Amino acid sequence: MSAPPPIPARESPPPSAQSTLAKLWWAARNPPADPRVSFAGKTVLVTGANTGLGFQAAVKYAALHASRVLLAVRCADKGEAAKADIVRLARCSADTVRVLPVDLSSFESVQAFVPALRRETDHLDVVLLNAGMANPTFVRSPAGYEMALQVNVLSTALMAVLLLPLLRAAPAPAHLTFVNSIAHADVQPDWCRGSLLQSCNDEAAWNVQRSYGMVKLLAMAVMHALARTAPADRLIVNACCPYMCKTDLGRNWGLAAKIPMAAFQAVFARTAEQGARTLVSATALGPESHGRFWHHDILYPLGDLAKDDEFMQKCWSEVLHVITTVQPDLHDHLGNKA
């Protein structure tokens, strides 16, 4: 008898022409399949790994026999507490899990993180870029960028490029997966006339709902660009969406918003564990997923703007300008292909 597939095919396809509430209702009752693939012998890095989706993904990697699970977290103490829980839940050795502090609100912290990581490992088999945030108001990072733009796009892009040599050093193929959102498909062209990056950073025009999708669309441009840096038989680059999950992504919101959101999520959201299934399975997909978007256990169509190669290249050029200003040698990491 043949072994079951590591990522079972979805029997019930997600709805495509229904309302958002209908889609959320369906998703909460049709969670992704739990991946059964082995990560034995692999070194895995997860950002934002001390809570929510990242924590649950780290538990799964450890339970699926990853040789090393590296937790990139903002607070070392919280990371160590998460490590203890991961070791307990996954029933793995404490030596399997390592905590590495990094603050994605700071370019300097990302730059310091990579040399520290190199002291831990000479390669990475899997990188899951999960760290993210969503604020109810416009807040600037120390570098002067709107905070979600800084964390979800600019610092994440800088980290991804700096990690390319470690990924390329892995036995082929390595995996680089960006946690994104189907909200990228909601962005309309008139929301970002001129520059998407500048629109995300425009305090006067900032809108909490629009901003979330715009930041995710800009992050999709990063994924597209890095997918061009290596053939899929060496490095598989993709993005995924866990859909609405019960996490602390809205931790910076006030109580008046948290209470109704918790009630809404109780009915319409997946659990963090269920959402993490999408993240982990995305990092186990084959070359067919290179440059593509994993959602509801299928390779899902991109939004219209994300399918516009010229627009995506323009967005990437804007991001690249920012991060090469921070670190001019990034073109060496990219191999001048992006």
Describe this structure in words.
With 338 residues, the protein is α/β, with parallel strands linked by helices. It has a single domain (20-325), classed as NAD(P)-binding Rossmann-like Domain (Rossmann fold, 3-Layer(aba) Sandwich), CATH 3.40.50.720. 43% of the residues lie in helices and 12% in strands. The chain is built from eleven helices and ten strands. The protein has helices at 20-29, 52-63, 76-90, 107-118, 147-168, 196-200, 208-227, 255-268, 272-282, 309-326, 330-334, and strands at residues 43-47, 68-73, 97-101, 126-129, 174-179, 235-241, 245-246, 270-271, 293-295, 298-299. The strands form two sheets. The protein has an eight-stranded mixed beta sheet with strand order 3-2-1-4-5-6-9-10, with helices on both faces. The chain has a two-stranded parallel ribbon with strand order 7-8. Helix 8 (255-268) links the parallel strand 7 (245-246) and strand 8. Helix 2 (52-63) packs across helix 3, helix 4 packs parallel to helix 5 and helix 7 (208-227) crosses helix 10. The chain is globular and about 50 Å long. The chain starts with 19 loop residues before the first helix and ends with a helix. The relative contact order is 0.15.
